[in-house]
# Entry
Amino acid sequence: MATVSLKKLVKRYDNLEIVHGIDLDVADREFIALVGPSGCGKSTTLRMIAGLEDISDGAIEIGGRTVNDLPPRARNISMVFQSYALYPHMTVRENMGFSLKIANEPKAEIERRVNEAAAILDLNHLLERRPSQLSGGQRQRVAMGRAIVRQPDVFLFDEPLSNLDAKLRTQMRTEIKKLHAKVQSTVIYVTHDQVEAMTLADRIVIMRDGHIEQVGTPDEVFRRPATRFVAGFIGSPPMNLQEATVDDGKLRFANGSSLPLPRQFQPNVAAGQKVVFGLRPDDLYPTGHGINSGDDADVHGAELPVSITEPLGNETLVFAEFDGHDWVSRMLNPKPLKTGDRIGMSFDLSQAHLFSAETGRTLRG
Amino acid sequence: MSATAREEILEQRSIRLPRLPAPVLLLMPAIVVLAAVVIVPLCLSLYSSFTPFRLTKPETFFVFIGLRNYANLLADWDFWAAFGRTVLLLTVALNLEMLLGLGLALMVEKATRGQRILRTLLMFPMMFSPILVGFQFKFMFNDNIGLVNNALQALGITGTAIPWLIEGHLAFIAILVAEIWSATAVFAILILAGLLAMPKEPLEAARVDGCTPWQTFRYVTWPFIMPFAYIAMTIRSLDVARAYDIVKIMTDGGPAKRTELLWTLISRTAYSDAKMGLANAMAYVSILLSILFTVYFFRKLAAARTQIGAEW
# Structure
């Protein structure tokens, strides 16, 4: 088991730089998720760690050893690919034992470790099949089994669940979490799905355009997003974000509506400053149908027209119009609403976020 | 004429001329053409292999001698020598072409630039008529004025003129070289197609799993491209088994029948010696050889396909 450090890691293709000197320290046995929209450089970063891509600049250390110029086979890592990348001409058993066979492990040892991994992943009855005779979820498990038998220092996952249907994805997510608890190794997991990142990772690295936007625990990135991008990326449905101007202790929006300036930001903003106001759907709710997380004094009420509702059973997403935009709110204990109804909405400003309109960074002190 | 009257007439006609069912009727043109160009000639040639048919004596076509031609063949040393030589040429040429084609394909696949041009260049030898290839190599291997001897002497490798097309073994090698030159491209193109169709992720998985480049090739790439190599083998085994033109031009089976292959022998028997019946018997035995090779390679191909779980 090992730590992984990225030091000013850069990737360039000809003149196009796509990873801009990122720094990251992954602790031993930590589960790190790299998440971001497609093209943000997360897969490239993972492939550089694996040794499948050259490093243009900077350094990668695994277990304190610089591995920049080592081929993948010398890094003691395992990788699970999005398309599983199983060897089509080998049985499940051969697929899983292949790396050990290459390493000239004795037959009995290969047998023992393959059986052990198969037991963990519930693959015992499939060992003699070929990949083409397996379902997507089974192939995925074989790919993980292949990674486990090597007992590597670091597991690398490259969007391993993206090719599965929604139900199977949820199921495999749980399996990966259990697996990590069992094998206790360092994991770097790339995904574009923030739910996967939130549910699996000890810490999440949010990437955008080849930069790291924020590194933090799921709780941190959810409650204290460092940038406007993180605020919009993490959470479903996404945070309501609107530009506003600070004006005499108030936030004035484009169409003239206003909200009180949240108390926690008062020392950090100047009059006339352009900001982005953010409020999660959980903190904007029809009055009496939500949970106030802070002081009652911080709850601001307003009567707003309903544009549309999305009932989900246990709750309803209510889109209400404020300042000419639809703001999404989460209504607990839902009651029926129709388009055009005017309802009292509560803005829980103690949970609000303010970002600089210029830099996109949080204005929290 | 009333409608019922017309129906009556139609009915009478259909009784007089029983109509063929529609499917048979529609297939009739194809059946006629096939019969004319394939079935009848095939039957006639098969029949003639049971006669002492000579082109110069048409009446011999009607003398049935049973299996005598085949019996003669079994004891004919020249025929079996040609048969063995053909199998040898087939084996050596196919294996060398496979190796060279594989090497070429692997190199072209590595090319990051100009791959298209390289692919087109690869096909060049296939664009020449085998007759011309024969003439070209006949010139190159000529002991007096040929390029090969010229080069060997200029480089000081040998002082004497090597009798390439005159000594039996050397002539066989010269033919082999011409065959390989003209057909390695078949292997290269088909194997390259396999390499290009191959998913890249198993290769990356192999690198992560600890494979050296050689092991990656041995355990991952090769099993995947094997079916493509077998397709090329099948095509080329048919090609080489009917090798005629290059040999005809370069040595005409000589010197002293040292490079006689099945089809040069068969054509000589049929046209120079005018023994068409015997030649047809030889041809049927030769076709058996082709069929055996085809069946063998198809078996191999099917096995290789199942192995990689190919969906084609």
Observations:
- The mean pLDDT of chain A is 90.
- The interface with chain B takes residues 50-52, 71-73, 77-79, 81, 83-89, 98-99, 102-103, 130-133, 146, 150 of chain A (CB under 8 Å).
